[in-house]
Design brief:
The chain has 200 residues and is α/β, with parallel strands linked by helices. The protein folds into 2 domains: 4-15 and 85-199, HAD superfamily/HAD-like (Rossmann fold), CATH 3.40.50.1000; 18-81. It is 50% helix and 14% strand. It contains 11 helices and 7 strands. The strands form 2 sheets. The chain has a 5-stranded parallel sheet with strand order 5-4-1-6-7, sandwiched between helices. It has a two-stranded antiparallel ribbon with strand order 2-3. Strand 6, helix 10 (168-176) and strand 7 (180-183) form a beta-alpha-beta unit. Helix 4 (55-65) runs antiparallel to helix 5 (70-78). The chain starts with a strand and ends with a helix.
């Protein structure tokens, strides 16, 4: 019997579109593509994991590594990048419905301290019994440690837990640990998959 529903944040509860954000700077397409790879690639993942303590630390490391694009990197990371986290109202409504139906709600997300501070202002955050966030754990999905942190901290049984995430690798790891993974592509499909699990 399912008791717990765990939600990812990025592209599940909030949109996150670096390409659209970079277009606001009117950079040449070649530069925009490079900045997307450089700024929002591996090092962004490492910042989510807490390897870079602040966005300023990430910015200076990237600027030093890519001096020909240092000015652009600083502009991108000095801009309102946190505003890329745009609420997905249909997802928030479904979370609220599940809460009302008596399920315990949790959040499991790869995100930085800056992203956490911004996103936690959304009302849906108040529906969660708790959450585990990569920058605090120094671990990112799909690493096993962050899933174990969630299960252990809140005494969740994997077989009683559904996890909704947009990344197939994250779902694969959840399934391996005995958690019921639901791959999010859109809210209608995710809802249908979740409801089938709840009906079992």
């Amino acid at each position: 019997m399912i008791k717990n529903i765990v939600f990812d944040l990025g592209r599940v509860m909030v949109d996150f579109d670096p390409v659209a954000y970079l277009r606001t700077f009117d950079y040449p397409e070649e530069d925009a593509q490079l900045l997307n790879r450089v700024v929002f690639g591996l090092d962004w993942f490492l910042h989510d994991r807490g390897d870079y303590e602040t966005i300023g630390d990430l910015c200076e490391a990237l600027a030093e590594r890519h001096p020909s694009h240092a000015e652009q990197i600083r502009a991108v990371l000095a801009g309102p990048w946190v505003e890329m986290h745009v609420l997905k109202p249909d997802s928030a409504a479904y979370m609220a419905e599940l809460k009302q139906r008596g399920y315990s709600i949790y959040i499991l997300s790869n995100l930085s301290a800056e992203s956490h501070a911004f996103v936690s202002k959304y009302d849906f955050f108040q529906l969660a019994e708790g959450g585990v966030f990569s920058y605090q754990e120094r671990s990112c999905k799909p690493e096993e440690k962050i899933y174990r942190s969630l299960l252990d901290r809140y005494a969740l049984l994997p077989e009683e837990t559904i996890f909704i995430d947009d990344n197939p690798a994250n779902i694969e790891e959840a399934d391996r640990l005995g958690i019921h993974g639901v791959l999010f592509t859109d809210i209608s499909t995710a809802r249908a998959k979740t409801e089938r699990l709840l009906a079992d």
